[in-house]
Amino acid sequence: MADKAAPDSSRRSERSRRAIFDASLALVGEVGYDKLTIEGIASRAGVGKQTIYRWWPSKAAVLLDAFTDGVDDYAAGLPDTGDLAADLKFVLRATADEFNDPAFQAPYRALAVAGANDEGLSRTFVARLLEPGISVYVDRLRAAQEAGEVAADVDVRIAAEMVLSPFSQRWLMRTGELTYDYVDTLVDQVLRGLRPRD
Amino acid sequence: MADKAAPDSSRRSERSRRAIFDASLALVGEVGYDKLTIEGIASRAGVGKQTIYRWWPSKAAVLLDAFTDGVDDYAAGLPDTGDLAADLKFVLRATADEFNDPAFQAPYRALAVAGANDEGLSRTFVARLLEPGISVYVDRLRAAQEAGEVAADVDVRIAAEMVLSPFSQRWLMRTGELTYDYVDTLVDQVLRGLRPRD
Protein backbone atom coordinates (compact mmCIF):
# COMPACT_ATOMS: atom_id res chain seq x y z
CA MET A 1 0.00 0.00 0.00
CA ALA A 2 1.31 3.48 0.99
CA ASP A 3 3.83 1.95 3.40
CA LYS A 4 6.85 3.72 1.97
CA ALA A 5 5.24 7.15 2.01
CA ALA A 6 3.92 7.01 5.57
CA PRO A 7 6.08 8.75 8.17
CA ASP A 8 5.09 6.22 10.83
CA SER A 9 5.61 3.15 8.67
CA SER A 10 8.13 1.53 11.02
CA ARG A 11 5.77 1.90 13.96
CA ARG A 12 3.00 0.47 11.82
CA SER A 13 5.28 -2.42 10.80
CA GLU A 14 6.00 -3.14 14.44
CA ARG A 15 2.27 -3.11 15.15
CA SER A 16 1.63 -5.56 12.29
CA ARG A 17 4.49 -7.78 13.43
CA ARG A 18 3.06 -7.91 16.95
CA ALA A 19 -0.46 -8.63 15.59
CA ILE A 20 0.90 -11.44 13.41
CA PHE A 21 2.76 -12.99 16.37
CA ASP A 22 -0.29 -12.78 18.63
CA ALA A 23 -2.53 -14.25 15.93
CA SER A 24 -0.19 -17.14 15.16
CA LEU A 25 0.26 -18.09 18.84
CA ALA A 26 -3.49 -17.91 19.49
CA LEU A 27 -4.37 -19.86 16.34
CA VAL A 28 -1.84 -22.66 16.76
CA GLY A 29 -3.25 -23.22 20.24
CA GLU A 30 -6.79 -23.36 18.86
CA VAL A 31 -6.40 -25.40 15.67
CA GLY A 32 -3.01 -27.12 16.03
CA TYR A 33 0.06 -26.81 13.84
CA ASP A 34 -1.24 -28.95 10.97
CA LYS A 35 -4.27 -26.75 10.40
CA LEU A 36 -2.47 -23.46 10.91
CA THR A 37 -2.27 -21.44 7.67
CA ILE A 38 -0.74 -18.15 6.61
CA GLU A 39 -4.23 -17.14 5.42
CA GLY A 40 -5.66 -17.81 8.85
CA ILE A 41 -2.92 -15.85 10.59
CA ALA A 42 -3.33 -12.92 8.18
CA SER A 43 -7.08 -12.84 8.66
CA ARG A 44 -6.86 -12.99 12.46
CA ALA A 45 -4.12 -10.33 12.51
CA GLY A 46 -6.00 -8.05 10.13
CA VAL A 47 -3.15 -7.86 7.65
CA GLY A 48 -2.75 -9.00 4.05
CA LYS A 49 -1.20 -12.40 3.27
CA GLN A 50 1.53 -10.58 1.33
CA THR A 51 2.60 -8.70 4.45
CA ILE A 52 3.38 -12.03 6.08
CA TYR A 53 5.09 -13.51 3.02
CA ARG A 54 7.24 -10.37 2.73
CA TRP A 55 8.80 -11.13 6.12
CA TRP A 56 8.60 -14.91 6.54
CA PRO A 57 8.89 -17.84 4.11
CA SER A 58 6.59 -20.25 5.99
CA LYS A 59 4.21 -20.69 8.89
CA ALA A 60 6.96 -22.48 10.81
CA ALA A 61 9.19 -19.42 10.50
CA VAL A 62 6.43 -17.08 11.72
CA LEU A 63 5.64 -19.31 14.65
CA LEU A 64 9.23 -19.74 15.74
CA ASP A 65 9.78 -15.97 15.66
CA ALA A 66 6.52 -15.39 17.49
CA PHE A 67 7.55 -17.85 20.16
CA THR A 68 11.11 -16.67 20.53
CA ASP A 69 9.80 -13.12 20.84
CA GLY A 70 7.54 -14.19 23.68
CA VAL A 71 9.89 -16.28 25.82
CA ASP A 72 12.40 -14.92 28.26
CA ASP A 73 15.74 -14.02 26.83
CA TYR A 74 18.26 -16.75 27.56
CA ALA A 75 21.19 -14.40 26.94
CA ALA A 76 21.42 -13.47 30.61
CA GLY A 77 21.87 -17.10 31.65
CA LEU A 78 20.79 -18.51 35.01
CA PRO A 79 21.35 -16.61 38.25
CA ASP A 80 24.55 -17.49 40.07
CA THR A 81 24.32 -16.71 43.78
CA GLY A 82 26.90 -19.37 44.58
CA ASP A 83 24.14 -21.74 45.77
CA LEU A 84 23.44 -24.12 42.87
CA ALA A 85 20.39 -25.79 44.40
CA ALA A 86 18.73 -22.47 45.24
CA ASP A 87 19.42 -21.06 41.77
CA LEU A 88 18.04 -24.11 39.96
CA LYS A 89 14.93 -24.22 42.14
CA PHE A 90 14.32 -20.51 41.63
CA VAL A 91 14.45 -20.79 37.84
CA LEU A 92 12.61 -24.09 37.59
CA ARG A 93 9.78 -22.85 39.85
CA ALA A 94 9.37 -19.84 37.55
CA THR A 95 9.37 -22.19 34.55
CA ALA A 96 6.70 -24.32 36.23
CA ASP A 97 4.53 -21.20 36.63
CA GLU A 98 5.02 -20.46 32.95
CA PHE A 99 4.27 -24.03 31.80
CA ASN A 100 1.16 -24.07 33.98
CA ASP A 101 -0.16 -20.92 32.27
CA PRO A 102 -2.72 -21.85 29.56
CA ALA A 103 -1.62 -18.93 27.34
CA PHE A 104 1.85 -20.47 27.17
CA GLN A 105 0.73 -24.11 27.16
CA ALA A 106 -1.17 -24.31 23.91
CA PRO A 107 1.34 -22.81 21.46
CA TYR A 108 4.37 -24.42 23.10
CA ARG A 109 2.72 -27.82 23.10
CA ALA A 110 1.69 -27.43 19.47
CA LEU A 111 5.22 -26.45 18.56
CA ALA A 112 6.82 -29.27 20.52
CA VAL A 113 4.45 -31.75 18.92
CA ALA A 114 4.90 -30.43 15.40
CA GLY A 115 8.65 -30.44 15.97
CA ALA A 116 8.63 -34.05 17.07
CA ASN A 117 6.73 -34.97 13.92
CA ASP A 118 8.53 -32.87 11.31
CA GLU A 119 12.28 -33.31 11.18
CA GLY A 120 13.03 -29.96 9.51
CA LEU A 121 10.92 -27.97 11.93
CA SER A 122 12.37 -30.06 14.75
CA ARG A 123 15.91 -29.01 13.93
CA THR A 124 14.89 -25.34 13.93
CA PHE A 125 12.84 -25.71 17.11
CA VAL A 126 15.70 -27.48 18.84
CA ALA A 127 18.31 -24.98 17.63
CA ARG A 128 16.25 -21.88 18.39
CA LEU A 129 14.45 -22.82 21.58
CA LEU A 130 15.39 -26.14 23.15
CA GLU A 131 19.20 -26.00 22.94
CA PRO A 132 19.52 -22.40 24.22
CA GLY A 133 17.29 -23.45 27.13
CA ILE A 134 19.50 -26.45 27.92
CA SER A 135 22.72 -24.46 27.42
CA VAL A 136 22.08 -22.02 30.23
CA TYR A 137 21.74 -24.97 32.60
CA VAL A 138 24.92 -26.53 31.23
CA ASP A 139 26.74 -23.23 31.76
CA ARG A 140 25.46 -22.87 35.32
CA LEU A 141 26.47 -26.45 36.14
CA ARG A 142 29.90 -25.89 34.63
CA ALA A 143 30.36 -22.77 36.78
CA ALA A 144 29.41 -24.86 39.82
CA GLN A 145 31.90 -27.50 38.71
CA GLU A 146 34.63 -24.86 38.52
CA ALA A 147 33.62 -23.63 41.97
CA GLY A 148 34.01 -27.18 43.32
CA GLU A 149 30.29 -27.55 44.06
CA VAL A 150 29.93 -30.26 41.38
CA ALA A 151 32.39 -33.15 40.99
CA ALA A 152 34.97 -32.78 38.21
CA ASP A 153 34.00 -36.04 36.48
CA VAL A 154 30.29 -35.17 36.08
CA ASP A 155 28.98 -34.89 32.51
CA VAL A 156 27.25 -31.50 32.84
CA ARG A 157 25.22 -31.90 29.66
CA ILE A 158 23.68 -35.13 30.91
CA ALA A 159 23.20 -33.53 34.34
CA ALA A 160 21.26 -30.66 32.75
CA GLU A 161 19.04 -33.17 30.95
CA MET A 162 18.49 -35.07 34.23
CA VAL A 163 16.80 -31.92 35.55
CA LEU A 164 15.10 -30.61 32.43
CA SER A 165 13.84 -33.74 30.66
CA PRO A 166 11.81 -35.20 33.55
CA PHE A 167 10.30 -31.75 34.04
CA SER A 168 9.32 -31.24 30.42
CA GLN A 169 8.23 -34.82 29.75
CA ARG A 170 5.97 -34.72 32.81
CA TRP A 171 4.36 -31.65 31.31
CA LEU A 172 4.26 -32.85 27.69
CA MET A 173 2.82 -36.29 28.51
CA ARG A 174 0.70 -34.98 31.39
CA THR A 175 2.00 -37.68 33.74
CA GLY A 176 2.07 -35.39 36.75
CA GLU A 177 1.73 -31.86 38.07
CA LEU A 178 4.59 -29.37 37.96
CA THR A 179 4.43 -28.24 41.58
CA TYR A 180 7.12 -26.41 43.57
CA ASP A 181 7.40 -29.51 45.72
CA TYR A 182 8.11 -31.66 42.66
CA VAL A 183 10.67 -29.15 41.35
CA ASP A 184 12.51 -29.01 44.69
CA THR A 185 12.65 -32.79 45.07
CA LEU A 186 13.87 -33.23 41.50
CA VAL A 187 16.65 -30.65 41.92
CA ASP A 188 17.75 -32.06 45.28
CA GLN A 189 17.74 -35.63 43.98
CA VAL A 190 19.78 -34.76 40.90
CA LEU A 191 22.27 -32.60 42.80
CA ARG A 192 23.06 -35.06 45.56
CA GLY A 193 24.65 -37.29 42.92
CA LEU A 194 26.73 -34.50 41.43
CA ARG A 195 28.53 -33.31 44.55
CA PRO A 196 32.19 -34.17 45.00
CA ARG A 197 32.62 -37.22 47.24
CA ASP A 198 34.19 -36.40 50.57
CA MET B 1 -19.69 -63.18 5.51
CA ALA B 2 -19.46 -66.93 6.14
CA ASP B 3 -17.29 -66.42 9.20
CA LYS B 4 -19.49 -68.37 11.55
CA ALA B 5 -19.70 -71.40 9.28
CA ALA B 6 -15.99 -71.70 8.57
CA PRO B 7 -14.15 -74.25 10.70
CA ASP B 8 -10.96 -72.15 10.62
CA SER B 9 -12.64 -68.83 11.40
CA SER B 10 -10.63 -68.14 14.55
CA ARG B 11 -7.37 -68.72 12.69
CA ARG B 12 -8.63 -66.44 9.96
CA SER B 13 -9.59 -63.83 12.54
CA GLU B 14 -6.12 -64.01 14.02
CA ARG B 15 -4.65 -63.56 10.56
CA SER B 16 -6.88 -60.51 9.92
CA ARG B 17 -6.01 -59.07 13.31
CA ARG B 18 -2.31 -59.43 12.57
CA ALA B 19 -2.74 -57.86 9.10
CA ILE B 20 -4.68 -54.94 10.61
CA PHE B 21 -1.96 -54.35 13.21
CA ASP B 22 0.82 -54.49 10.62
CA ALA B 23 -1.06 -52.17 8.28
CA SER B 24 -1.82 -49.61 10.99
CA LEU B 25 1.79 -49.50 12.24
CA ALA B 26 3.17 -49.19 8.71
CA LEU B 27 0.64 -46.53 7.72
CA VAL B 28 0.97 -44.32 10.78
CA GLY B 29 4.71 -44.25 10.13
CA GLU B 30 4.13 -43.26 6.51
CA VAL B 31 1.30 -40.72 6.73
CA GLY B 32 1.25 -39.68 10.41
CA TYR B 33 -1.54 -40.05 12.93
CA ASP B 34 -3.68 -37.20 11.63
CA LYS B 35 -3.97 -38.69 8.16
CA LEU B 36 -4.40 -42.28 9.32
CA THR B 37 -7.91 -43.60 8.55
CA ILE B 38 -9.79 -46.82 9.18
CA GLU B 39 -10.37 -46.99 5.40
CA GLY B 40 -6.65 -46.78 4.76
CA ILE B 41 -5.87 -49.48 7.30
CA ALA B 42 -8.60 -51.76 5.90
CA SER B 43 -7.37 -51.31 2.36
CA ARG B 44 -3.73 -51.97 3.26
CA ALA B 45 -4.68 -54.99 5.38
CA GLY B 46 -6.95 -56.42 2.69
CA VAL B 47 -9.99 -56.56 4.97
CA GLY B 48 -13.34 -54.79 4.95
CA LYS B 49 -13.86 -51.61 7.00
CA GLN B 50 -16.59 -53.42 8.91
CA THR B 51 -14.11 -56.05 10.10
CA ILE B 52 -12.16 -53.30 11.83
CA TYR B 53 -15.23 -51.55 13.25
CA ARG B 54 -16.47 -54.87 14.61
CA TRP B 55 -13.39 -55.07 16.87
CA TRP B 56 -12.33 -51.46 17.51
CA PRO B 57 -14.25 -48.20 17.99
CA SER B 58 -11.55 -45.86 16.58
CA LYS B 59 -8.20 -45.65 14.87
CA ALA B 60 -6.62 -44.75 18.20
CA ALA B 61 -7.88 -48.01 19.67
CA VAL B 62 -6.52 -50.06 16.75
CA LEU B 63 -3.17 -48.36 16.97
CA LEU B 64 -2.79 -48.76 20.70
CA ASP B 65 -3.61 -52.47 20.45
CA ALA B 66 -1.24 -52.85 17.52
CA PHE B 67 1.50 -51.19 19.47
CA THR B 68 0.93 -52.99 22.72
CA ASP B 69 0.92 -56.26 20.81
CA GLY B 70 4.32 -55.43 19.37
CA VAL B 71 6.23 -54.22 22.42
CA ASP B 72 7.82 -56.45 25.00
CA ASP B 73 5.60 -57.55 27.76
CA TYR B 74 6.20 -55.48 30.88
CA ALA B 75 4.63 -58.11 33.11
CA ALA B 76 7.97 -59.78 33.80
CA GLY B 77 9.47 -56.53 35.13
CA LEU B 78 13.17 -55.65 34.97
CA PRO B 79 15.86 -58.23 35.69
CA ASP B 80 17.08 -58.25 39.29
CA THR B 81 20.57 -59.71 39.55
CA GLY B 82 21.24 -57.70 42.72
CA ASP B 83 23.34 -55.22 40.73
CA LEU B 84 21.08 -52.24 40.02
CA ALA B 85 23.48 -50.43 37.69
CA ALA B 86 24.09 -53.52 35.57
CA ASP B 87 20.38 -54.30 35.35
CA LEU B 88 19.42 -50.77 34.31
CA LYS B 89 22.19 -50.60 31.72
CA PHE B 90 21.21 -53.96 30.29
CA VAL B 91 17.57 -52.98 29.80
CA LEU B 92 18.26 -49.45 28.65
CA ARG B 93 20.81 -50.62 26.08
CA ALA B 94 18.20 -53.00 24.66
CA THR B 95 15.69 -50.15 24.61
CA ALA B 96 18.21 -47.98 22.76
CA ASP B 97 18.55 -50.71 20.12
CA GLU B 98 14.77 -50.78 19.80
CA PHE B 99 14.40 -46.98 19.58
CA ASN B 100 17.17 -46.86 16.97
CA ASP B 101 15.27 -49.35 14.78
CA PRO B 102 13.34 -47.50 12.03
CA ALA B 103 10.50 -50.06 12.10
CA PHE B 104 9.87 -49.11 15.74
CA GLN B 105 10.69 -45.41 15.38
CA ALA B 106 7.98 -44.25 13.03
CA PRO B 107 4.87 -45.63 14.71
CA TYR B 108 6.06 -44.90 18.24
CA ARG B 109 6.96 -41.33 17.33
CA ALA B 110 3.60 -40.85 15.61
CA LEU B 111 1.83 -42.19 18.66
CA ALA B 112 3.85 -40.11 21.12
CA VAL B 113 3.21 -37.01 19.06
CA ALA B 114 -0.48 -37.65 18.60
CA GLY B 115 -0.72 -38.38 22.31
CA ALA B 116 0.93 -35.10 23.22
CA ASN B 117 -1.58 -33.27 21.02
CA ASP B 118 -4.79 -35.07 21.88
CA GLU B 119 -5.63 -35.23 25.56
CA GLY B 120 -7.95 -38.26 25.31
CA LEU B 121 -5.48 -40.31 23.32
CA SER B 122 -2.73 -39.11 25.63
CA ARG B 123 -4.44 -40.52 28.69
CA THR B 124 -4.82 -43.90 26.95
CA PHE B 125 -1.26 -43.83 25.61
CA VAL B 126 0.10 -42.96 29.03
CA ALA B 127 -2.01 -45.55 30.82
CA ARG B 128 -1.38 -48.36 28.36
CA LEU B 129 2.26 -47.79 27.36
CA LEU B 130 4.10 -45.07 29.22
CA GLU B 131 3.06 -45.77 32.81
CA PRO B 132 3.65 -49.55 32.63
CA GLY B 133 7.10 -48.75 31.22
CA ILE B 134 7.89 -46.37 34.09
CA SER B 135 6.40 -48.72 36.69
CA VAL B 136 8.85 -51.55 36.07
CA TYR B 137 11.69 -49.09 36.76
CA VAL B 138 9.97 -47.83 39.90
CA ASP B 139 9.54 -51.43 41.08
CA ARG B 140 13.18 -52.27 40.41
CA LEU B 141 14.35 -49.14 42.23
CA ARG B 142 12.10 -49.94 45.17
CA ALA B 143 13.56 -53.45 45.36
CA ALA B 144 17.04 -51.87 45.39
CA GLN B 145 15.87 -49.53 48.13
CA GLU B 146 14.68 -52.47 50.20
CA ALA B 147 18.02 -54.19 49.59
CA GLY B 148 19.83 -51.10 50.90
CA GLU B 149 21.37 -50.27 47.52
CA VAL B 150 19.30 -47.07 47.25
CA ALA B 151 18.88 -44.60 50.12
CA ALA B 152 15.61 -44.81 52.07
CA ASP B 153 14.68 -41.16 51.46
CA VAL B 154 14.92 -41.33 47.66
CA ASP B 155 11.70 -40.69 45.71
CA VAL B 156 11.84 -43.73 43.41
CA ARG B 157 9.25 -42.39 40.98
CA ILE B 158 11.31 -39.26 40.36
CA ALA B 159 14.45 -41.40 40.17
CA ALA B 160 12.87 -43.55 37.46
CA GLU B 161 11.99 -40.40 35.51
CA MET B 162 15.58 -39.14 35.93
CA VAL B 163 16.69 -42.16 33.90
CA LEU B 164 13.82 -42.52 31.45
CA SER B 165 12.88 -38.93 30.55
CA PRO B 166 16.34 -37.77 29.39
CA PHE B 167 16.57 -40.96 27.34
CA SER B 168 13.20 -40.57 25.65
CA GLN B 169 13.35 -36.81 25.20
CA ARG B 170 16.76 -37.11 23.55
CA TRP B 171 15.14 -39.52 21.12
CA LEU B 172 11.87 -37.63 20.61
CA MET B 173 13.52 -34.25 20.05
CA ARG B 174 16.53 -35.73 18.25
CA THR B 175 18.97 -33.80 20.45
CA GLY B 176 21.48 -36.64 20.61
CA GLU B 177 22.25 -40.26 19.79
CA LEU B 178 21.14 -43.11 22.02
CA THR B 179 24.49 -44.90 22.28
CA TYR B 180 25.57 -47.48 24.86
CA ASP B 181 28.07 -44.97 26.13
CA TYR B 182 25.32 -42.41 26.70
CA VAL B 183 23.13 -44.99 28.43
CA ASP B 184 25.93 -46.09 30.77
CA THR B 185 26.89 -42.52 31.72
CA LEU B 186 23.26 -41.61 32.37
CA VAL B 187 22.65 -44.63 34.59
CA ASP B 188 25.90 -44.11 36.54
CA GLN B 189 25.24 -40.42 37.03
CA VAL B 190 21.69 -40.98 38.27
CA LEU B 191 22.65 -43.84 40.57
CA ARG B 192 25.54 -42.15 42.32
CA GLY B 193 23.04 -39.72 43.81
CA LEU B 194 20.71 -42.45 45.01
CA ARG B 195 23.15 -44.51 47.06
CA PRO B 196 22.97 -44.38 50.83
CA ARG B 197 25.50 -41.94 52.29
CA ASP B 198 28.24 -43.65 54.22
Structure characterization notes:
- Chains A, B: Pfam families: TetR_C_11, TetR_N.
- Chains A, B: Keywords: DNA-binding, Transcription, Transcription regulation.
- Chains A, B: This is TetR/AcrR family transcriptional regulator.
- Chain A has 198 residues and is mainly alpha-helical.
- Chain A folds into 2 domains: 60 residues, Homeodomain-like (Arc Repressor Mutant, subunit A, Orthogonal Bundle); 119 residues, Tetracycline Repressor, domain 2.
- In chain A, 70% of the residues lie in helices and 0% in strands.
- The first copy, chain A, is built from 9 helices and no strands.
- In chain A, helix 1 packs across helix 4, helix 1 packs across helix 6 and helix 5 runs antiparallel to helix 9.
- At the A-B interface, helix 6, helix 7, helix 8 and helix 9 of A face helix 6, helix 7, helix 8 and helix 9 of B.
Give the beta-strand count of chain A: 0
Oligomer class:
homodimer
Q: Give the total of domains of chain A.
A: 2
Count of discrete alpha- or pi-helical segments spanning 4 or more residues of chain A: 9
Which two protein chains have the largest interface (Cβ within 8 Å of the partner's Cβ), and how many residues from each? A-B, 41 and 41 residues
Strand and helix order of chain A: HHHHHHHHH
Largest sheet of chain A: none
CATH superfamily of the largest domain in chain A: Tetracycline Repressor, domain 2
CATH topology description of the largest domain in chain A? Tetracycline Repressor, domain 2
Strand content of chain A: under 5%
Q: Span between N and C termini of chain A?
A: 71 Å
What is the class of the largest domain in chain A in the CATH system? Mainly Alpha
Pick out the low-confidence regions of chain A.
none
